[in-house]
Amino acid sequence: MQSLFVPFFHNYSHSFLTLTCPSADNNHLPFSHQFDVKCCYDFKLPKFCDRIRSCHVVDGKSSSSTILTSKHHHILKPLTMTNLNMDTIHNDSPQLRVAYQGVPGAYSKAAANKAYPDCKAIPYDQFEVAFKEVEQWKVDRAIIPLENSLGGSIHHNYDLLFYHNLHIIGEVYLPVHHCLLALPGVRKENLTQVISHPQALAQCEHTLKNKLGLNVIYEAMDNTANAAKFVAANNLRNTAAIASSRAAKLYGLQVMVHGIQDNPKNVTRFVILARELKIPHIDKPFKTSIVIALDKGMSLLFKVLSVFALMNINLTKIELRPYRNIPIKLRAESNNVSNTSHHFKYLLYIDFEASIAEVRAQNALTKVQELTSFLRVFGSYPMDMTPLNPACHA
């Protein structure tokens, strides 16, 4: 019999949740280590406990128990082996409600449809609103872009991920196929302005200037599809938008030029956010996302990276963001208060290729926890292994 431990986070307190599960011989993960994790996760404990329980097998027969080690104790009804099955827990209904930022025709909506083809995708004007809608149970999921192969990280969304109480339960890689859109009959020589999201403008700048020879003003919008909608709604015959061909169909625009991104290998990575944890497996490639505080200076970065190297764990992403709660740290030199050094404090976001159910990942997190005062696990989730076909999301 093995134990499955799932860390949960509650008001910066130390809390543990231990689940007793079958061994790996029964296609369930061995997961026995307990992490003493400090984190800022504020949700209602009884609701969380209603979703995660435990069971074990004795002499081939299933029985159940719940072990909750914290200052809170709740007696829960036992679940059967079927309840712990991954497919049963995450069998999303056909009308799963998925929040995304933008308007119909946005790439975020395409990512939502790739993740959940039969979902009800609900648009919101801001990323933070999408986060809050999930937290308030108004929608079931949110799909949020975190990074682009050409434009880099979307820093604002990393900050939102830290300050909101959601888990990452999946990821979506979406090829981005930008088009130059305008009202029917408009020609390139009529254009004096091009509008779109700042990242889209940056991703197409070389093509627009050097290949198409456009001498125009660039204006930023909050969303690519919203730029297309704006051109159509205001009948702007001197303005083009950078957006998808899907947006052109929705808003009655013509596609002047297909594939105007500077590099054809333009891909955006989205993460799927939910209120509940996803129980990790070891039978498929998993990725785990964490954040730690570099509260002892940048020298800690080398130590943390060394831990993963020694455990033979591949990192797919590292990102530094300001630690806004304590942005600057002062350190006295030689006990002389008047002579102090200053350094900024940062949060280090890490994605690594391993399931938190794997022993090597557990050992790595245990060591990392010893190095820092703060560690949060956003989630351990299946990697998106689907082939990248730009044509399917054009």
Main sheet makeup: 6 strands, mixed
Helix percent reads 10-25%
The radius of gyration is 24 Å
Low-confidence stretches: 1-92
Which CATH architecture of the largest domain would you pick? 2-Layer Sandwich
Number of domains: 4
Derived structural class: alpha+beta
Principal-axis shape equals elongated
Q: Report how far apart the termini are.
A: 50 Å
Strand content: 25-35%
Estimate the mean pLDDT confidence.
78
Name of the level-1 CATH class of the largest domain: Alpha Beta
Strand segment count: 22
Number of DSSP helical runs: 10
Supply the CATH superfamily name of the largest domain. Answer: ACT domain
Summarize the structure in words.
The protein has about 400 residues and is α+β, with helices and mostly antiparallel strands. The protein folds into four domains: about 1-90, no CATH class; about 95-175, D-Maltodextrin-Binding Protein, domain 2 (3-Layer(aba) Sandwich), CATH 3.40.190.10; about 180-260, Periplasmic binding protein-like II (D-Maltodextrin-Binding Protein, domain 2); about 280-385, 2-Layer Sandwich (Alpha-Beta Plaits), CATH 3.30.70.260. The chain is built from ten helices and 22 strands. It has helices at about 45-50, 85-90, 105-115, 125-135, 155-165, 200-210, 225-235, 245-250, 300-310, 360-370, and strands spanning about 1-5, 15-20, 55-60, 60-65, 65-70, 95-100, 120-125, 140-150, 150-155, 165-175, 180, 195, 215-220, 240-245, 255-260, 265-275, 285-295, 315-320, 330-335, 335-345, 345-350, 375-380. The strands form six sheets. Strands 6, 7, 8, 9, 10 and 16 form a six-stranded mixed beta sheet that branches. A hairpin with a 2-residue loop joins strand 3 (about 55-60) and strand 4. Mean pLDDT is about 80; it is low at about 1-90.
